[in-house]
Amino acid sequence: MNLARNLEMSAYFFPLRPAIREGGREITYAQLNVEANRIATGLIALGVVPGDLVALCAPNSAGWIAAYFGIIKTGASAVTLSSLLTPDELSNLLSHARPRFVITVEARLPELRRLKGVIKKVICPGGDLEMEGLKARGSGSFSAVDRDRRDVAAVLYTGGTTGMPKGAMLSHEHTLFSASSIAFYEHSTEKDLALCFLPFNHVFGQLHIMNATILSSGCLELLPSFDMDRVLEVLKEGRITKFFSVPTVYIRLLSLPDLERYIGPLRYCFSAAASMAMEVVKQWKERTGITIAESYGMTEAMPITFNHLLPEFHVVGSVGQPVYGVDVQIRDASGNILGAGHEGEICVRGRNVMNGYLGSPEETKATFWNARKRQEDGWLRTGDIGIMDEHGYVAIVDRLKDLIITGGENVFPREVEEALYAWPAIEECAVIGLPDKEWGERVAAFIVPKGEETIDQDKLKPFLKTRLAGFKVPKLFVTVKELPKSPAGKILKREVRRQYGEEHRKKER
Predict the structure, then answer these.
(1) Which of 82, 137, 280, 294 is the most buried (most CB within 10 A)?
(2) Which fold is adopted by the domain 404-508?
(3) Chain segment 84-106, per-residue pLDDT in tens
(4) Is 466 in a helix, a strand, or coil?
């Protein structure tokens, strides 16, 4: 088994069909497979063997996809990292994963040179080896190395880069199951053209959009990032059949008075990352005739549920029923199984569940119920509170974890708090997510200053941007006299939300 065989099969059956459209240029499946083969055999010539880790840190592009499948064809595992990470964030993750090689862009060279003892070679313009030089060492003919179904195909980091970074190890079976499940529920075919501007390092972009499209031999229209004008230009061309985005973008599109003229042959719309407001789903259906599909998944298990194949059975407000072959249970804090209609933690078992966290056996163990002799015997604890009805439809009630999802990006409060505590005027702080009509949630920092100090936002924001990716920097700073605490002195974030969050929402109404 090897995930890259999806690309090989699409190249075999549809060699001349476009796999990627980027900047007006089309790349066929045959061409993409040859590029991946050259990268694979070039890496093997450098000494890459099955089981090695090779990191990929670059913006979305056809080259990214070729490198991803090239790495996986060798039997190595692709460690996919965000191109938006700050130097310290990137250094932390690479020091944790310790890949043999890194494929990246020239702008990343300064920080990567500091990791010379960790990384054997950096492959990029100006690096130890350039990509064209790597491909020149290889061959266009190659077949993916056979791997065990449980061997790791890719490592995706779930968020935080300080303290305990967590790299979810996704097996070949996991990724194949995820891609085939998504393609099935979306009725994907080789005639589909899917617009993608979401990052491939993230599970949504990598598994849900890219891998599922390659498996079904469809075509990806790539944009380097979200740009409203470019999105509208591409939609107006009248070729896109599948649209993937986050609630923020759908809300912005609904503000267009002439939205209907951009729909064209669009047949499928999907929203991820945060719960979609029922009113937005209703308005989109009324104006476009398309039901926005939703599912439930996470880096550690993708997908878990999917709303029904047929729009007439789509339940608004629900994330759907468990996908075929996946078991879902609702459990209480002691691990007891709860019946229909009872709130509890969503727990999952199936081929969609990760192997565990890279280099973190204790974190892995704490994430599973009943994992005895084999990891796959256990039930993954999602950290999300949900409720399941008698028909198996699941609704997300709340999150046990403090993860904030803003504009489709994951933000871990602890990481932001660590950066805030580096600012000398801050005594204490608590970072939470507050509901936001456009972003889903916005990152909000509640700060207790030291003594008579004041918090100058104009100076604090630029400071944070040197330590955090832009989407992690709080959009709201609130200075408070004190933060609620437990008897043991622990800051109680639920009380922060209750006391200060509600107070601030009232001020903004």
Answers:
(1) 294
(2) GMP Synthetase; Chain A, domain 3 (3.30.300)
(3) 888 888 988 999 999 999 999 99
(4) coil
